[in-house]
UniProtKB/TrEMBL annotation:
It comes from the Bacteria. SMART domains: ANTAR. Residues 156-186 form a coiled coil. Keywords: Coiled coil, Kinase, Transferase. The lineage of its organism: Bacteria, Bacillati, Actinomycetota, Actinomycetes, Mycobacteriales. Residues 163-224 form the ANTAR domain. GO terms for molecular function: kinase activity; RNA binding. It comes from Hoyosella subflava (strain DSM 45089 / JCM 17490 / NBRC 109087 / DQS3-9A1). This is Sensor histidine kinase. InterPro entries: ANTAR, CheY-like_superfamily, PAS, PAS-like_dom_sf, PAS_4, WH-like_DNA-bd_sf.
Amino acid sequence: MNASTACLLIDRDFRVRGLNGAYAEATRRPRGELLNQALFDLFPDNPNSTEEQVDRVARSFERVLRCRQPETLWVQRYDIPDPAKHGAFIPKVWTLNHQPIFDSGGSVIGVVQHSEDITALDAALASLADTLAAADADEDHWWHVLRRIGSAGRALPRYRETYRALAQENHQLREAQAARAVIEQAKGVLMGQRRCSPDEAFEILREISQATNEKLRDVAAALVADTTGHTST
């Protein structure tokens, strides 16, 4: 484990029994204030956040104690109290790894938590996700950009599938929007030519699509092109 990784030891009652300097630094609390204290009294829920914090981490501890197996919370929002401002919290996002601690007899006596502060990475990914969702972008290009974030890039592989799915969804949405636009154009053409209603115009397009085994969008695009002399995109 990297020496800079924040490390915390808790017993079965979730009391702090040990920590390293990196943990004290990450949580902005001196070591003496933390030892032998109830963890969730030290770090309660942020009342201004709607996300699960204490409950989700506590359930993870309970599973590790019960199942005797490690568990990782890859992206966990957990704000910490601001020591410089009473009642205020500092927004934080972490990757938390929980490992069982065994005594000499093989009983689980506690949990060791390794914490990595990924707040900056999470914010960068959220910003890029918004950009990707709002504009056409090549997924491989965005992946290259993400990898340049820096040392935090080692955490990126678990996000790639999310970004791939987002890019695909974005592409499909834009295709659907384009299809709707050309179908509406074709309906307008038919309504003008045949003096029919919008529903009747759509039914005509659907029947042609079925008869020719062509996609509805392609039928509509061909009709618009024949009428206007311009190919729809």
